[in-house]
Amino acid sequence: MDALLIVDLQNDFCPGGALAVPEGDTIVPTVNAMAARFDHVIQTQDWHPAGHQSFASSHPDHAPMDVIEVDYGEQVLWPDHCVQGTEGAEFHPDLDTAPSELILRKGFRPGIDSYSAFYENDGTTPTGLTGYLRERGIDTLYLCGLATDFCVKWSAVDGREEGFDVYVIEDATRGIDQDGSLAQAWDEMNEAGVQVISSEAALDLAAA
User: Fold this and answer.
1) What is the mean pLDDT of residues 194-205?
2) CATH 3.40.50.850 assigned to 2-48+93-207
3) Domain limits of the chain?
4) Whether residue 151 lies in the annotated active site
5) What pLDDT is recorded for position 206?
6) Strands (E), the chain
7) 14 is catalytic
8) Which of 116, 148, 150, 165 is at a distance of 20 to 30 A from 13, taking alpha carbons?
9) Which of 14, 82, 144, 151 is catalytic?
10) Are 23 and 61 in contact (CB under 8 A)?
11) Average pLDDT, the chain
């Protein structure tokens, strides 16, 4: 059984947002078309409290995009983004959320970031998504959303490690590409057994 996983398609990750992914909003029509065709649609939503540890503003001696060491390893410091209850944390206004059966919020613990839909960045604290999918007999995931080289990549790789077949829909995702991170992300996903696919091919497979 298949599910579409829409990753963090929120205002702050789209042009004009606090942590904008170039052309992030251009994927919305494709994502909507995909969501209309899948029986199971799940969304993730970055949902940070103010003063989150991953914000550069929480570290006066550092700037956005600096990398620091924290308890669970390296942490990129980001501009304040997707703060709970703000417009930036809301989904893109053109995104059709009606088909979504689950909205999974992540990054809400003040002291730990969360890129993956499956685990916090410590790699051990689960979000509960694995159990949700298994209870419903879902074994194949099609991923789209933002950003390819961070939350999409981490979700795809963790999905493979959890035993799911994972496809990333290439024309329904966009990346930040920080210091070559986009090419590295595609390499990591390939090594993990993630399959890259077009939206047209994904719809054909999902309908089969």
Assistant:
1) 93
2) yes
3) 2-48+93-207
4) yes
5) 78
6) 2-7, 41-46, 67-70, 73-76, 102-106, 140-146, 165-174, 195-197
7) no
8) 165
9) 151
10) no
11) 96
